[in-house]
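#struct-pred

JT: dropping the chains for the assembly here, can someone run the whole complex?
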Amino acid sequence: MELNSRPVVEVSETDIYQESHTVLSDISFKIEKGEFVYLIGRTGSGKSSLLKTLYADLAFHKGAIEVAGYDLTKIKSKNIPYLRRKIGIIFQDFQLFPDRTVTENLTFVMRATGWKDRTKMKGRLAEVLMRVGLGAAAEKMPHQLSGGEQQRVVIARALINEPLILFADEPTGNLDPEVSSGIFGLFKEINRSGTSVLMATHNHKFIEDHPARVLKCDEGKLLDSAEHEFELSGHY
Amino acid sequence: MAKDKKYRKKKLGSYPFASVVFSVTLALFVMGLFGLLILTTNNLTRLIQENVEIQVFLHKGLSQNEVVKITKILSSKDYVLKSGGQAQIQHITKEEAAETFMEETGEDFVNFLGDNPLRDVIKIKVSPEYQASQNLAEIKKEIGFISGVFEVTYIENLVQSINKNVRKISYVLVGFTVILLIVVVVLINNTIKLALFSQRFLIRSMQLVGATSSFIRKPFLSRASWFGLLSGMLACALIWGVLQLAEREIEGLIDLVRMDELLVLTAAMLLVGLLVGFISTFAAIKKYMKMSLDELY
Ligand SMILES: Nc1ncnc2c1ncn2[C@@H]1O[C@H](COP(=O)(O)OP(=O)(O)O)[C@@H](O)[C@H]1O
Ligand SMILES: [Mg+2]
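RK: done, full complex below.
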């Protein structure tokens, strides 16, 4: 069980690129199994780019990255799907299909990731929906759900294949504060059961109420609260 | 990302197929015509070649011995078609010839004339290697020197001129087939590009949750193969229709097409349809999936 003792994410001396310009340079950090880490920084500072690089959606040029046991430096494109099954992605651009029910949305993902057994699929579906507190919403269409409920379905979708880590990019960005803290609570709960979380957020209140390690994108560098202290507040 | 305005359930792998099926059908149809042409001319050629004949008319009043001698000489020649080790030579006496003639015309001309004006004739089937007009002329000359031979005649072989014309038509048909196949490949390429673009949201989501490329490709490929096969069937139906029409115009044409060969042609058309659909779709998807889907337009 070497994987268990190794960090879920390990980035060493890497540059993050968008097209040909460097967004973050020479960054290094590790995320251990079960860790909860915030990712902060101003709009345009590179949070999304960093997350995209971590789930192999954006190429990087220098250094080495390992995620969930996959070496992204030399990962073959045919192995990327298997990497993605070990991580959960919650991303603004990655919405539910508006033309399918919650169940159809989730079974679509299951089938796409190699699930075949109908009974097992049903079981897993009920499990993840219970976990996000939406046991009764299975047959609803996304537009029949509130924003918060939709986000819970998105989280359920990310949980289907029991990921080692969740990459969440501003998961509460469009939600009002009360609903946001409910969603945040769900992340904490998922984290308590052993899944690591790396969450990009602008919500300062979360960090105040639930202090945890913070990575900050700042002028092309990545600051790590585990290494040295820095100013959390400021312009977001 | 542009969100789909319509909430119509989109199925992965669907695309507007009418133009694809139409063009593949057309390409296969022309290919089928070419195949049909080759089959009929092959059979026609064989038929003609088996029937190239030299008729050797003999002098009147030859003895039985002399006739046998001439037959023997002719049988030993290389240019006589051998079938089952047997030289294809036939001796028809003037009496037999008169009888056939009477049967055909219904006139008892022997009685009428009081004499049989016909001659004994030896018919020789010529083997294909000696059927060029030059060879036939030489053979005619050679036989003419045999004593007892009155006259040698033959009908000029048509095979060469048929083949020449068929070759010209073949070039045209093959050219058309190639052009149409290129059109088909380009069209499928563009159709797939459009389909991938309009389904990029779906495909992107599948990629993010960890669907393999082959899983994403599968519905496109099975659809393309099915459309290819469908086009093959349509083209075959057209070919059979053309054959029926042609038979109405040129009687006996259908006898030139052997059923087993026609079935092979049909199977080939279905197979080509399926392969064209499958391979060009596979290539298009491979090409466009490498790009970011948003960059397609
Ligand atoms: N698709 C893209 N193509 C080119 N540049 C981009 C793209 N997405 C983001 N960028 C640029 O990369 C930088 C970092 O953006 P991003 O990672 O989205 O920051 P954040 O998520 O922190 O707001 C910005 O300067 C932005 O303009
Ligand atoms: Mg962002």
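JT: nice. Residues 1-7 of chain B have pLDDT under 50 and may be disordered. Residues 80 and 126 of chain B are 5 Å apart (CA to CA).
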